[in-house]
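User: I'm putting together a teaching handout on how sequence relates to shape, and I'd like one worked example. Could you take Phosphoglycolate phosphatase from Spelaeicoccus albus, show the sequence you're using, and then write out its predicted structure as tokens right after it?

Assistant: Happy to. First the sequence, then the structure tokens directly below it.
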Amino acid sequence: MTVSPATRYSCILFDLDGTVTDSAPGIVEKIGEALVAAGHPSPDPDELRRHFVGPPLSESLRDYAGIEGREADRIVAYYRQAYTSRGVVGNSVYAGVRELLGRIRDAGVPMAIATSKPEMQANAVLSEFELAEFFTVVTGSTLDESRSTKADVVAEALRRLRVAGVDVSRPIMVGDRRHDIDGAGAHGIECVTVGWGYGAAEEIAHAAHHAPRPDDLAELLLVS
């Protein structure tokens, strides 16, 4: 597959939470519930949003509260059960993103999801919002954490794209957190951060590009 003349890139990898969908309300509610159930004080929702939306959950528990080992495993298990039973309540597609994905698809550019969210949950979200049709592959973390870092997720997404016959010679990552930048950078891939996600200014400053709005992202990714 050759690079489309309508794009600067041969394929585009999208983060999910904070980039395609606004999942913070559901994540914040359920991780707070899991922490309280484990005997921790009721956490500040803004702190949870800053630490837990985007990065791998075990990493967030370690960095935010110093929780590791069996206690972290119990909290993760509680959270996943509670979050899965909740479905996509507290989640929504960002304004303008569906139209953006349609423009990229119409330009003939293959897209993939590369998310730290467990792959089963990512597929459920995309199915619920009828977004799965836009993506050639969907790659998330594994429940056994054999694939948990963003770099590992990006590597697997690229592998699956190759298997699907996609040219991965000039990919780009679209995300909203430092983990997206670093995960893509581990493979020599540029990242563009979006202005509607959860990344703080000091995080997104490290990206090669920044797009405040979906229209800005389309202008960056597609040749007009």
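A couple of points you could highlight for students: Residues 2 and 167 are 6 Å apart (CA to CA). Residues 69-86 form the longest helix (18 residues).
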